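Suppose you are handed only these lines of text.
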Amino acid sequence: MKPVQVLGMLVAVGVIAAPIGSARPAYFAQAVTQFKLTKDGKPSITCQFCHENASGGKPFNVFGMSVGANLFGAANKNIAQALYLTMKDRKDSDGDGYDDVLEVVGGSRPGDAKSIPRTPKDTLEAQLKILGGVDYYKPKP
Ligand SMILES: [Ca+2]
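From them, the structure of the protein bound to calcium ion can be written out as follows.
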């Protein structure tokens, strides 16, 4: 097989496979990196950070819907910016008493009302302030 044919095959496979399998892992990786959600070098979250099911897919949880609204709303189509805007909104997506950004700081799930930070809210606010506020999660250019 000539190199041109191999390249053509790779492009064809990529075009077909991209909508099925690569977008979601990319969004997951972006959330892990941008929100610094790692422990011992591995992601400390699962797909349930934004989805109802551990395997991802639909339905999204309430936080995932907040991110989606920022991702597909207005002129913004960038996952990094959508994640940041969701933090900046200072919304409590799951209604558990902690803003989404405080849940990120506290290591709980912002889309699951049964998951709340173990750290008191005042302490999380102080930690966020030390980090530089919500802009700590602003995408790097
Ligand atoms: Ca929560």
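What can we learn from it? The first strand starts at residue 38 and ends at 39. The first helix runs from residue 3 to 34.
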